[in-house]
Amino acid sequence: MNIDNIVSPTLILDKKKCLNNIRLMSEKAKKHKLIFRPHFKTHQSRTIGKWYKKSGVNKITVSSLHMAEYFANDDWKDITVAFPVNIREIDTINSLAEEIQLNLTIENTESVAILNKKLKFEVGFFIKIDTGYKRTGISFDIFLTIDKILKLASESNKLVFKGFLSHAGNTYKAKNTSEIIEIHKDSLYKLSLLRKQYIEKYPDLLMSTGDTPSCSIADNFEGIDEIRPGNFVFYDLMQYQLGSCNLEQIATIMACPVVSKHSERKEIIIHGGGVHFSKELINIGNKNIYGKLVHFNKEGWTEADQDQYLVKLSQEHGTLQVSDELFDIIEIGELIGIIPVHSCLTANLMKEYLSTDDDVIDHLSGNNI
Amino acid sequence: MNIDNIVSPTLILDKKKCLNNIRLMSEKAKKHKLIFRPHFKTHQSRTIGKWYKKSGVNKITVSSLHMAEYFANDDWKDITVAFPVNIREIDTINSLAEEIQLNLTIENTESVAILNKKLKFEVGFFIKIDTGYKRTGISFDIFLTIDKILKLASESNKLVFKGFLSHAGNTYKAKNTSEIIEIHKDSLYKLSLLRKQYIEKYPDLLMSTGDTPSCSIADNFEGIDEIRPGNFVFYDLMQYQLGSCNLEQIATIMACPVVSKHSERKEIIIHGGGVHFSKELINIGNKNIYGKLVHFNKEGWTEADQDQYLVKLSQEHGTLQVSDELFDIIEIGELIGIIPVHSCLTANLMKEYLSTDDDVIDHLSGNNI
User: Fold this and answer.
1) With contacts defined as CB-CB under 8 Å, which chain A residues touch B366?
2) Which of A66, A249, B236, B262 is most buried, most CB within 10 Å of its CB?
3) What sign results for the dihedral spanned by CA atoms B359, B341, B212, B109?
4) Does a structural domain hold residue A92?
5) Per-residue pLDDT tens over the stretch B299-342
6) How far apart are CA B308 and CA A159, in angstroms?
């Protein structure tokens, strides 16, 4: 790749690595006979969407109706919005439901009551189930609430029950891969109880799950019909720390110009701050870490010999703490590569990718007003 | 204002409060005979820029050349880029320098050497001084490095020395307003030593400083010629916590739809996450806080009776922890207001404002590739 023309913070995408990540997860889904409905909130790119389509994917997940519209307008016909339905957006729901197979996520009767009144076209719906993350969803064992939702929804001829949807986001707090496996197993067990309760009445019900750590690490998906991982398409430093991937699988890095060096602190100042990386951080050795240094090479980038981290971020500045040796080598005006902590948020800020083949790749941009 | 039409996360701007913030800071600058060169990285808006222009401002600060271009194209003729010069962007520097009074920030001889070779038009430059923040800049007492920069720059007929620029960003770590005043006083003292050293040789040199906490709280600017605060135009929860403003001065809030309620945890789930607020946080009572609840009224919003905070953020979800009383009142489908922790980063993500007078107000959007 030619980095000479890069003058300001730029998000670099290695297409080969990205395609490989897609291929591996597709194969895993196939092996376990799972519907593969990848989450597109990570890349938010029509181009990358096409790479998925080429690999056989025709059902996708998004996290907002805005994103659903963006991909529906690019010919995606089966979209699940894995976010509690926002009834203020009923007009968008109706216009999408007229065109595509739209699946909503429901976790309370209040939303169902409004949908019953205002839906003009058929939509599928999943009931959001909490298996321990405690962010959204009905606890897997509160059948009373689930029954209420199903009963109320059955009064509408527009709401078609599809199944149960969960997200074991608690894997992101795991200390190691065995803890991830434990959380995943626990989640499978809870979902199996739920399935047992409803499968007779709803023989076609789908059990949908799929955080990236579980989908990457686990090899048992018993009782699951569909997975929805998203981040694996790029991975990032957080996923590497969790054990979801190795460093070579990470498909996006930031390219940032070096603007200053401070020898007394062995700190390198780059153009690359919170408006580029986001302020997502991980903890390594009790330090806040915002990214990890890599070196550019002809094909893309390669890991640095030692661990060198981005340790501070303000709006436009990033501070990289490096070894004495590296401090002397890095030059002002040079371009350095940084693996971001959270690729979804970084991509969402950068709004565009430059591939290692020097192609510009799109990302959903703009706003909603 | 009419919030009925708001269906998804929206950044609301109270123009009156914003104009009042501009007026107060302008008056303070006038009172102390300071050049008022506000930082536009907070709002990144041509419309808000015009409000400044109307109040008499004709010199501005930005934090990237991209932003400098955006405002130069809107007829701003005197722009300081308060970020260590990025020599990879020499072409943009030259094209801007041809059109406007462009001032760069320099803190090393390496950049000067390149500028000497490649500058085609005259630019002003400030030497970045560190008075204790330890992010960028040359320590105020390292005259040797400053002299080297001045000597090398004097070999070019394109580089015009303007003065010294500092940013006491360490005020953001202050525990109370008296600590902010102490840091500000310390910074003034250090800058006065620097001024004494160079004023004879450079009688026109300007001392430029101005973080929002100091500019809001301090009332002594002895030895300073120019201030560059930015955030005060909106303020935010972080500035309120620091003591820079009262709650009524905060001019932007996020409007977010309520999508779910979890009674066992007294948690309200809103559409409004890291891609709307940013992941900037403050600490209140040992808890991570991402925003503070306010209530909408006819004119805009009003403070909630009790402190209710946004306590968790993921990509699209926000979790608000509320009192039993409020939990019962807030309804699914309702729109609630949240003061963001860091208005600059929130505005940078939202890319647009809706004013309480129902006008859509622009924000710099897009990317650089």
Assistant:
1) 351, 365
2) B236
3) negative
4) yes
5) 999 988 789 999 999 999 999 999 999 999 999 999 999 999 99
6) 35
CB pairs < 8 Å spanning A and B: 174
Instruction: Let me know if residue A279 belongs to a domain.
Output: yes
* DSSP secondary structure of A116-182: HHH--S-EEEEEEEESS--SSSEETT-HHHHHHHHHHHHT-SSEEEEEEEE--GGGGG-SSHHHHHH
Which of B4, B111, B145, B262 would best serve as a mutation to test chain A binding (most A beta carbons within 10 A)? B262
Residue A37 to residue A227: CA distance in whole angstroms: 6
**Does A354 sit within 8 Å of B369, measured CB to CB?**
yes
Chain CA centroid to CA A339, Å? 16
Indicate whether B212 belongs to any domain: yes
Quick one: A318 and A182 in the same domain?
Answer: no
Q: Rounded distance, CA B130 to CA B140, Å? A: 6
For the stretch A25-71, pLDDT in tens is 999 999 999 999 999 999 999 999 999 999 999 999 999 999 999 99
Tell me, yes or no, whether A292 and A343 share the same domain. Answer: yes
Q: Which residues are registered as beta bridge partners of B10?
A: B255
Residues B200 and B294 in one domain: no
- Is there a single domain that holds both residue B269 and residue B151? no
User: Of A179, A195, A229, which marks where a domain is finished?
Assistant: A229
| Full residue range of the structural domain in which residue B107 is found | 39-229
Residues in chain A, how many? 369
Six-digit token string for B151? 């000597």
Q: What CA–CA distance (Å, rounded) separates B205 from B193?
A: 14
Query: How many structural domains are present in chain B?
Result: 2
Together in a domain, A128 and A267: no
Buried b (16+ CB within 10 A) or exposed e, B24-57: ebbebbeebebebbbbbbbbbbbbbbebbeeeeb
Helix or strand (DSSP H, E) at B91: helix B90-99
The answer on A268 and A182 residing in a single domain is no
Instruction: State the pTM of this model.
Output: 0.97
> By three-state DSSP, how is residue A348 classified?
helix
Determine the 3-state secondary structure of B309 from DSSP. Answer: strand
> Which residue of A107, A261, A351 is in closest CB contact with B108?
A261
CB of B68 less than 8 A from some CB of A: no
Distance between CA B164 and CA B127 in Å, rounded?
5
Q: What is the CATH number of the domain that holds B321?
A: 2.40.37.20
**Which of A229, A261, A295 marks a domain boundary?**
A229
Q: Cα A88 to the chain's mean position, in Å?
A: 25
Question: Which pairing describes strands B101-106 and B123-130: parallel, antiparallel, or unpaired?
Answer: parallel
A185 and A95 in a common domain: yes
The predicted pLDDT at position B366 comes to 62
Contact residues, chain A, for B271 at CB < 8 Å: 64, 83, 86
At which residue do the structure tokens 């909630």 appear?
Answer: B304
Q: A202 in a domain, yes or no?
A: yes
* CB within 8 Å of B325: residues ≥ 6 apart: none
Tokens representing A162 are 């599809």
ipTM for the predicted complex comes to: 0.96
